[in-house]
Design goal:
It is a single chain. The chain is α/β, with parallel strands linked by helices. The protein starts with a strand and ends with a helix. Strand 9, helix 9 and strand 10 form a beta-alpha-beta unit. The chain contains 22 helices and 20 strands. Helix content is 42%, strand content 16%. The strands form 4 sheets. A 6-stranded parallel beta sheet has the order 3-2-4-5-7-6, with helices on both faces. It has a 6-stranded parallel beta sheet with strand order 11-10-9-12-13-14, with helices on both faces. It has a 6-stranded parallel beta sheet with strand order 16-15-17-18-20-19, sandwiched between helices. The chain binds thiamine diphosphate and magnesium ion (MG). The site of thiamine diphosphate has 19 residues, from helix 14 and helix 18.
Amino acid sequence: MKSTAASLARHALERLGIRHTFGIPGVHNTELYDQMGASDSITPVLVAHEGGGAFMADAVSRTGAGVGALLIVPAAGVTHAASGIGEAFLDGIPMLVIAGGIRRDLGRAYQLHDMDQHALLAPITKGCWRVERHADVIPVIYEAYRLANSGEPGPVFVEIPVDLQLMPGDAGEIPEYQPPPAAGHHADDAAFARATDLLRAAKHPAIICGWGAVDAGRELKALAERLGAPVATTLQGLSSFPGNHPLHAGFALGPAAVPASENAFRDCDCLLAVGTRFAEIPTGSYGYQPPANLIHVDINPRVFGANYPAAVALEGDARSVLATFESLLATMPAAAARRDVVAAQIAADKRDYRDQWLAHDPKGRVNPQRFFDALRRQLPDDGIVVADDGNHTFLIAELMPIHSPRAFFSPSDFNSMGYCIPAVIGAKLARPDRTVIGIVGDGAVRMTGLEMATAVAQKAGVAWFVFNDGELAQIAQAQETPYNRKTCTVLPELDFEALARANRVAYRAMRNDAEVDRVMQEALASAAAGEPVLVDVRIDYSKRTRFTEGVIRTNLKRFGLADQARLVGRALWRRLTG
Ligand SMILES: Cc1ncc(C[n+]2csc(CCOP(=O)(O)OP(=O)(O)O)c2C)c(N)n1
Ligand SMILES: [Mg+2]
């Protein structure tokens, strides 16, 4: 049978259940676009910028309802998309990236978009392919997709040269897609025995979970309750354990953590880490020191010992490993007394921290705790909250309990600003049944804000809350003490109402505490009615998060005494001299 590579690619994507592709057409992929446009099951979504498209695709995958796909031009489309591909790579999110490739049949050099895209993408993808003949189109897409979804997931890249897209060729035998085998575990009985011995013997066991545990909520709850163990989460794993569970201690570990977590983990003598890599954010720039009895569970064995040595390392899928723990510990009496003590302390610490925020005078602006109290009251339990990167991210992590799995997304380890506005759209397209809202900094809005028009075009009813403080706060706050100057972190003014109007989305201002409930209600009603809305939140940033304070302290301690003296001296001098 003779087919064009474009029609073969469409067949593969339809079989894989891809429902949206994100990108922009160009001369190297219009044939692919024509095919996708003719498909009954695939909607090719036109984005404003491929970077936004990549964040949308990433968010589709994070919902768990399918895998996000990009359809982009070579070179310029690839470099634009690279931030979103990099985010998916470091955060372990599957993504299928398809780009056209230059013609190989002309024998000409210096064609448009001619560059080695594979060299560019190699460090931020799990695998890259260039299809060389028609018969390989479907097998290569299937192989790439399988790799994207096996082990620790991640993005993959397939280049389809434009001459193959345009011309029919021998399609060969069309295979069926074979999904990767169900993820189990590769740990032996002896390792499980050592781990369960440590857990049984521990006086203060505790659990930290990351995104790798996001689908293991039931198993985590059962284990935490049996052990009477507090549970902290990473930033990316904020939705891996319900924020309203009595053993939920909160975000991060150590001196940069919320007080409930710092206190609950202080005497920890055995730490069970599930689906986390002890990366920079959850450890507060490595200010946290785990106990020697560290049991580390992860699907990717390269994470073991990367930052902290594990007493026992168990390679495997979180659900599979935790289910095995559950059966091995079935005879252990539940530590009910410990559970009650731990839960009571967590509840008291959370109350106290919340009260501290409520007591802080927002000086006529919006108090962050009042904002998140209203959001939690009005958002359904399974509503999806999407963050960008900045001070607002850590406010969410500390002040907003997330109740359901896969209900919080953030650009975590690649830490790419510009994520939120497009990711909200991707999440809503993948889960039209869910309420999807974004919380985004006024700096990040500038990067991908024109993607709001894409929500209108796709009829995605979503709400974005811009935390409007006039600064790149997360960095400005870190400049304040050591430099006493804010070089390049004070933003030029931007008219958000005009930006909303230009994108044809609704606009609301939330100026102070008195307006929080009403404006929140109006915004969520607008989103529910299918009308995207931008909410300009005059947020008060005068109180620091625990995270920022903890990280600044940890990094200052890292300098030797002489350098500390030099930095403090410079800060004092600048304070005196202005
Ligand atoms: C692409 C990119 N550029 C720069 C940074 C560095 N950075 C991290 S947070 C931040 C401030 C973000 O400012 P804004 O969006 O206003 O959020 P806020 O901190 O004020 O809540 C910056 C510049 C980054 N993470 N990503
Ligand atoms: Mg800001």
